[in-house]
Every structure is written in structure tokens, then in C-alpha cells.
Automatic annotation (TrEMBL):
<dbReference type="InterPro" id="IPR004603">
    <property type="entry name" value="DNA_mismatch_endonuc_vsr"/>
</dbReference>
<keyword id="KW-0540">Nuclease</keyword>
<keyword id="KW-0255">Endonuclease</keyword>
<keyword id="KW-0227">DNA damage</keyword>
<dbReference type="GO" id="GO:0006298">
    <property type="term" value="P:mismatch repair"/>
</dbReference>
<keyword id="KW-0234">DNA repair</keyword>
<comment type="similarity">
    <text>Belongs to the Vsr family.</text>
</comment>
<dbReference type="GO" id="GO:0016787">
    <property type="term" value="F:hydrolase activity"/>
</dbReference>
<dbReference type="GO" id="GO:0004519">
    <property type="term" value="F:endonuclease activity"/>
</dbReference>
<dbReference type="Pfam" id="PF03852">
    <property type="entry name" value="Vsr"/>
</dbReference>
<protein>
    <submittedName>
        <fullName>Very short patch repair endonuclease</fullName>
    </submittedName>
</protein>
<dbReference type="InterPro" id="IPR011335">
    <property type="entry name" value="Restrct_endonuc-II-like"/>
</dbReference>
<keyword id="KW-0378">Hydrolase</keyword>
């Protein structure tokens, strides 16, 4: 497991390129919570949008998740713990005024970037016009 990339995965790089091509600028691997420490993959600080790129295996994708037969109890607990931590992270960030976006590694980067760009633009408009 030590060799599994946590940063700079192919899915993350493809998404970053698609976002950059749309003119969006962002920060990478920003710790948004401490105790417990939670780090977003891509952050739009001004709009308060945090993007997490989740691997299908590690986060239990409903379309592509597979449950290993070897050491099945360990892996089921590991993946379920990841899912619980993801939900906890989303809830904590929402309480702080952030919007979280979860992108599965199998998603088309261009489509995900479009979805994120719309959300970031909408959040920026609402933050610059407080009467809305």
C-alpha cells in the first residue's frame, strides 16, 4: 500500500488540466481541517469549494468497487472506514461554509471540470453579492 499514490494521480492530473484549460486557478493539497487533519486535492479558496478525487477501489465506488476475496474482512473495514471519513469530512466542511465536490477516478475529467466550474462561478457570484 505504500506505493499507492495519494497525490498526483492520473485522474487528478487530468482534472487539473481540464480546470486550468477553463481558466480556473486553484491551490493543491490544502489542509482544510485539523484534528482530524483532512486535505482537499483541489481548493478554490475564494469560492470555498473543495474538490476530492476519489479512487474507485479505495473509496468504494458504487459502479466499480470490488471486494477482494483475500483478507476480505480487513478490506471491507478499510473501505467502509474511508467512506465514513469522507462523509464526516463533507459534513464538517459544510458546517464551515464550504462546498465539497467528490469526483470518482473513472469520471470524465472534462465533464467533472464543467460541473466544478459552474459551482465555483455560482459560489463566487453569491460571495461578491451578499444580498443574493
Amino acid at each position: 500500500m505504500a506505493r499507492v499514490r495519494q497525490k498526483g494521480t492520473r485522474a487528478e492530473i487530468d482534472l487539473r488540466r481540464a480546470l486550468h484549460a477553463r481558466g480556473l486557478r486553484y491551490r493543491l493539497h490544502v489542509p482544510l481541517l485539523t484534528k482530524p487533519r483532512r486535505v482537499a486535492d483541489i481548493v478554490f479558496s475564494g469560492a470555498k469549494v473543495a474538490v476530492f478525487v476519489d479512487g474507485c477501489f479505495w473509496h468504494g465506488c458504487p459502479e466499480h468497487a470490488s471486494w477482494p476475496k483475500n483478507n476480505a474482512d480487513f478490506w471491507r473495514e478499510k473501505i467502509e472506514t474511508n467512506r465514513s471519513r469522507d462523509a464526516d469530512t463533507d459534513q464538517r466542511l459544510h458546517a464551515l461554509g464550504w462546498t465539497t465536490v467528490r469526483v470518482w477516478e473513472h469520471e470524465d475529467a472534462s465533464q467533472a471540470a464543467s460541473r466544478i466550474a459552474e459551482l465555483v462561478d455560482a459560489r463566487r457570484v453569491n460571495r461578491t453579492h451578499p444580498c443574493r
